Amino acid sequence: MTGFFEELQRRKVYRVAAAYIIAAGFIIQIGSAVFPAWELPNWTLRLVIVLLLAGFPIALILAWAYDVTPQGIQATPAPPGTHRRRNVIALTAIGLAISAVAGFFLYPRASRRGIEKSIAVLPFQSLSDEKENAYFADGIQDDILTNLSKIGDLKVISRMSVMSYRGDALRKAREIGKALGVGALLEGSVRRAGNRVRVSVQLINANNDEHIWAEDYDRDLTDVFAIQTDLAQKIASSLQAKLSPNEKARLDRRPTENSDAYLLFLQAHDYANRMDVTHGTSAKAVPLFEQAIKLDPNFALAYADLSIAQSWLYHSSDPLPAWREKARLNADEALRLQPDLPEGHLALGFSYYYGDRDYQRALAEFEIAKRDLPNEAKAYMAIGAIQRRQGKWTESTANLEKAAALDPKNVSVLTNLGYSYMALRNFEAADKIFDRLAAAAPHSLEPALLKGGVAVLWKGDLSVVERQLSSVPPETDPGGLMTWVRVWCLTLERKFPEALQVLQKFRGETMSTTTTAPSPKAFVEGMIHLLQGDNARAQAEFERARVISEKSLQEVPEDPARHAQHGLILAALGRKQEAIAEGKRAVELLPESQDAFDGPQGTAALAQIYAWTGESDEAFGLLDHLLGIPNGLTIPLLKLDPLWDPLRKDPRFQALIDKYAASR
Question: How far apart are CA 503 and CA 121, in angstroms?
Answer without folding.
Answer: 45
